[in-house]
Amino acid sequence: MEEMIVNVKNYFIKLEQMILRIFEDQLRKHTCLKINMELFGYYYNPSTDNHDVKSFNTPFKVICNSAKTKDVIEEFATVIDNKADEFAEKDSGWILLNFIHLEININKFNPLRASSFIELPPEIVRRQAVVNIRNNDDYCFAWSIMAALHTPTGVDFVTSSYPHYSTGLNTAGINFPITLKDIKKFENQNNISINVYGLEKYYNKNSNNEEYEVIGPLHFTNAKKNIHVNLLLINDDDGNLHYCYISDLSKLISKQLSKHNGRKYLCEGCLQYFDTEQKLQYHNSYDCDHVKINLPSKELVKDRYGNVAYENKY
């Protein structure tokens, strides 16, 4: 039987646009997705004259905006390609004849309620960009907001360094531990805008270590206000969740950015960076997945090319 030359990455390239459309369609329906893939191939073993189906899968990964989907596809292709190569190198005698199909498993990712204290991974602690309040109640969200609003009177991670949340926040009608869907109500009651990000663990082949990257936003505010707070939602192995205050978002995700040496202008909606403020503004207006709210103005509206827009005629 003539051996067919089959390449995993070329197979993914062929399917990339279809996969992107699937992801983007699901992300319009759900805030975040938890996905993995499994590639099935048809194999032949000439020493035994047997045929069989083999498959190689990826770990699950959380994505919360379409800007990350292409990177996820490339990452999954690499994982499956490596597994297929490892299988072939084990002197199994099996020869890949062709791919049968790619199975994509998509689950809605909906974090549960967050409550009492959870330790941050040491790698995140070293970045010195997150304040993790050591609360012993269900109000880690409220304590994190207080940490954002007030200068601590003592060490920044204890509740006694801040005014009690009941003295400065309107939590009427909001159940704690708070869910992501209730944050909008909290924003409206307190005239505060809030973005929430998450952490995802992955294996870095170059460093041979497990590392973390910031994902999200899991919750993205409808309109950024004068008082704006970024929060980090973390979890432990038992599924418990906990909010922390992000004191410096750019510093927190700096490891994920390219080795650009100049100043970075960060989009909080998709965690991309730009080397000029003008490029960031253009991105926010036309390219970002999240809608930018424009307040009424007497200035003429211009389109993306700088021309007077059609809206001015009305």
* Main sheet strand line-up: 5-9-8-6-7
Class inferred from helices and paired strands? alpha+beta
Q: Report the span from N to C terminus.
A: 70 Å
Largest β sheet strand count, sense and barrel closure: 5 strands, mixed
Low-confidence stretches: 1-5, 290-306, 308-314
Determine the fraction of residues in helical runs and give it as a percent range: 25-40%
Topology (elements, then pairings):
Blueprint lengths: L7 H22 L3 E13 L4 E8 L3 E3 L5 H20 L6 E14 L13 H5 L3 E2 L8 H10 L15 H4 L14 H8 L2 E12 L4 E11 L8 E8 L5 E6 L2 H5 L11 E2 L6 E2 L2 H11 L27
Helix pairs in contact: 1-2
Brief account:
This protein is of the alpha+beta class and 314 residues long. It has helices at residues 8-29, 69-88, 122-126, 140-149, 165-168, 183-190, 249-253, 277-287; strands spanning 33-45, 50-57, 61-63, 95-108, 130-131, 193-204, 209-219, 228-235, 241-246, 265-266, 273-274.
Describe this protein's structure:
- With 314 residues, the protein is of the alpha+beta class.
- It has 3 domains: 101 residues, no CATH class; 135 residues, no CATH class; 58 residues, no CATH class.
- It contains 8 helices and 11 strands.
- Helix 1 runs antiparallel to helix 2.
- The radius of gyration is 24 Å and the shape is elongated.
Question: What key attributes describe this structure?
Answer:
single chain, 314 residues, alpha+beta, five-stranded mixed beta sheet, four-stranded antiparallel beta sheet, 11 strands, elongated
